[in-house]
Amino acid sequence: MEKFVIRGGNPLTGDVTIGGAKNAAVAILPATILAAGKCIIENLPCISDVMASLQILSELGASIRMISKSTYEIDTSHLDCTEVSNELSRQMRASYYFLGALLGRFGSAQVAMPGGCNLGPRPIDQHLKAFTALGAEDSVEYGMIRVSADKLTGSHIFFDTVSVGATMNAMLAAVMADGLTILENVAREPHVVDLANCLNMMGADVHGAGTDVIKIRGVGSMHGCSYSIIPDQIEAGSYMAAAAITRGDVTLHNIIPKHLEPITAKMRAAGCVIEEYDESLRISCHQRLKPLKIKTMPHPGFPTDMQPLMTVLLSVADGTSIVTEGIWENRFRYVDELIRMGANIQVDGQVAVVEGVEQLHPAPLRALDLRAGAAMVVAALAADGVSEIDETSHIERGYENIVEKLQALGADIRRVEIPVNTITRAM
Ligand SMILES: CC(=O)N[C@H]1[C@@H](OP(=O)(O)OP(=O)(O)OC[C@H]2O[C@@H](n3ccc(=O)[nH]c3=O)[C@H](O)[C@@H]2O)O[C@H](CO)[C@@H](O)[C@@H]1O
Ligand SMILES: C=C(OP(=O)(O)O)C(=O)O
User: Fold this and answer.
1) Confidence (pTM)
2) In which element (H, E) is residue 331 found?
3) Which residues bind UDP-N-acetyl-alpha-D-glucosamine (predicted)?
């Protein structure tokens, strides 16, 4: 096990290259099952969720060849298993995309209830609603989800809530169903559009991704393709937060500015200077940040995954901010860690009232989940001393080479191995 040791206070300056989007990659990798041929997937981030997805594909019988650190060739022609191992599916929330993809190709799938960040209940009723509307039967017993169908038939599905996961899983199951599927009240996130684009490259007929109605005309078969995953908007937003809180000046490369609009709008309102180019963006901050009101919402609203990072920024703003979490019931657990650093934040249900303080102080911190962990890194970069962050495996689920990228920007951050006997004593 490792911890991060961070001495705060260095303004971040220089250039950072953003990796591929985790939340697109974890759906596109299962989608290769539908292609039943060779897919070359580029711009894959080197993170543990991607490695677990590749491992699942390999255990199901896919041949996988690494072409470069971020490009893999995946051949699913000889896949011969529709059951995802318990151990791997529980490592990440996104293992549920194997349900849609395996159901779509083989008419059956078995996946354990997914893991992922503890943000409160993470129901999958809307995924199952879509599968049953397409003609599948489902059962959830002893933590195992099973779906099966003799035949999948296109259907008109109206989602009760806007769900990224259910939208993408329904797309995976429907692309080879017989006839037309209409999905209404769908999520419009960039990764939904990315999955649709990738499926279309494999021969699917998906229209409307990015709006709230997606139409899918089922095709008889799909084929291999070459596809490059979009850049990760949340990784980009996290480096923007790190630049802003340290009053730095950072240029981000390999980004799509349009995808970052909800984030750049709030960062500008907080006083950051942002210059946008075709595939890069420069952010600098020369003053104490201004307070904001933020409510997380489905895209194009402010993304829930940036909420912990923005709360850290606002914890040192000049005034009172209100942060409302509109997606998850329990995404303020990290606030107790920030309070240990001297932040003044009151949480009442889904609302945090953040009274900005002048300075955060170092503390021993835990990465309670992926974005909370990244938020702790950003907070520690601004603190006036040395902080240590434990449980960094959560952070490695979603940020490739975070330590090396921050070091290159001038941050004083180190990965330190925790000796095994220290871990045992602490347990
Ligand atoms: C719309 C939204 O912002 N989705 C976020 C959600 O995606 P993720 O796909 O994990 O979650 P969903 O979009 O499915 O969930 C959104 C909301 O719908 C509810 N729900 C979902 C599925 C279902 O079957 N039944 C149900 O009631 C959830 O409880 C939640 O309140 O978390 C990810 C990780 O933080 C983020 O990257 C996504 O941006
Ligand atoms: C919470 C996240 O991931 P997951 O849904 O995979 O747990 C995230 O990407 O912020």
Assistant:
1) 0.96
2) none
3) 93, 122-126, 305, 327
Annotated binding residues for phosphoenolpyruvate, as ranges?
22-23
Where in the chain do CATH 3.65.10.10 domains reside?
Answer: 2-19+231-426, 22-228
The answer, yes or no, to whether any atom of ligand 2 lies below 6 A from the CB of 93, is: yes
In the CATH scheme, what architecture does the domain 22-228 have? Alpha-beta prism (3.65)
Which residue minimizes the CA distance to atom 34 of ligand 1?
305
Quote the Cα angle for 139-169-131, to 5°: 40
Residue-wise DSSP of 141-203: ETTEEEEE-S--B--EEE-SS--HHHHHHHHHHHTTSBSEEEEES----HHHHHHHHHHHHTT
ipTM comes to 0.98
**Given the CA of residue 119, which atom of ligand 2 is nearest to it?**
1
- Residue having the nearest C-alpha atom to atom 15 of ligand 1: 163
Q: 92 CB less than 6 Å from ligand 2?
A: yes
Ligand 1 lined by 305 (C-beta under 6 Å): yes
Q: How far is Cα of residue 183 from the mean position of the Cα atoms in its chain?
A: 23
For residue 421 the two structure tokens come to: 């006997």
- Whether 272 sits among the annotated catalytic residues: the reply is no
Cα–Cα distance, 137 to 96 (Å, whole number): 16
Q: What is the CATH number of domain 2-19+231-426?
A: 3.65.10.10
Q: Are residues 284 and 315 in contact, defined by beta-carbon separation less than 8 angstroms?
A: no
Q: With pLDDT > 90 as the criterion, what percentage of the chain qualifies?
A: 91
Residue keyed to tokens 């908007």: 233
Report the nearest-CA residue for atom 1 of ligand 1. 298
**Sheet architecture: strand order including 2-7:** 364-366, 386-390, 2-7, 412-417
Please choose, from the candidates 418, 413, 391, the residue with its C-alpha nearest in 3D space to the C-alpha of residue 402: 413
Position 426 confidence tier, pLDDT thresholds 50, 70, 90: very low
